[in-house]
Every structure is written in structure tokens, then in C-alpha cells.
């Protein structure tokens, strides 16, 4: 088995955290609710605790998705891509 064949890849699928309810904004501009922001922070801490540091994030361009990515996307080694 070659070294390329023996490398495992971890794929983490996430949905954005709770959006602000009843917003009059268009769907792409709806931010996270205060509860969603707290949950994002807890998730980020737990991922760090488990050593799950993303190398790449592929996400929709919605504001709440960017907020959910939070500091996970601020890692100097993390590439961030938006998909339509």
C-alpha cells in the first residue's frame, strides 16, 4: 500500500447554526441568532478539543453560513470556498 493510499480523510458535514427568526432580510443576508452564535462558539471549542482543525471549508455564500464557519475558517492553513 502506498503512502497516498494509507492517508485517511475526515469529512465533517455541518449545517449552519440557528438563524435569526422572523428576519425581513433576504435569505442570503439572514444572520445567526444569539443562540446560534453561542452554539457556533461551543462547536468550535469542541472541534479544537478533539483536534478537528479543518484544512478546507466549502460553504454557501449565506451570511449565517459564514458566521457558522467562525474562527474555524480563520486558521492560516484553512482554505475557504463558496459554492452557489
Strand content: 5-15%
Number of strands: 2
Looking at the structure, what is the overall shape? Answer: globular
Mean pLDDT: 81
Poorly predicted runs are none
First CA to last CA: what distance?
Answer: 37 Å
Count up the helices.
3
Side-by-side strand order of the widest sheet: 1-2
Order of helix and strand elements from N to C terminus: HHEHE
The radius of gyration computed from the alpha-carbon positions, rounded to a whole number of angstroms, is: 15 Å
Largest sheet: 2 strands, parallel
Instruction: Give the helix proportion (percent range).
Output: 25-40%
Main structural class: alpha+beta
Structure description:
By secondary structure, the chain is of the alpha+beta class. It has 3 helices and 2 strands, in the order H-H-E-H-E. A two-stranded parallel ribbon has the order 1-2. The chain is globular. The chain starts with a helix and ends with a strand. The model has no long low-confidence stretch (mean pLDDT 81).
Give the SSE layout.
Layout: H1 3-6, H2 34-49, E1 56-59, H3 63-69, E2 79-82
Parallel strand pairs: 1-2
Question: Can you give keywords for this protein?
Answer:
alpha+beta; two-stranded parallel sheet
Short description:
The chain has 84 residues and is α+β, with helices and mostly antiparallel strands.
Amino acid at each position: 500500500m502506498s503512502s497516498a493510499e494509507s492517508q485517511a480523510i475526515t469529512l465533517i458535514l455541518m449545517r449552519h447554526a440557528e438563524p435569526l427568526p422572523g428576519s425581513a432580510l433576504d435569505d442570503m443576508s439572514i444572520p445567526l441568532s444569539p443562540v446560534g452564535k453561542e452554539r457556533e462558539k461551543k462547536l468550535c471549542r469542541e472541534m479544537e478539543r478533539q483536534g478537528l482543525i479543518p484544512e478546507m471549508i466549502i460553504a454557501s455564500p449565506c451570511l449565517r453560513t459564514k458566521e457558522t464557519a467562525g474562527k474555524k475558517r480563520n486558521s492560516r492553513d484553512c482554505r475557504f470556498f463558496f459554492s452557489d
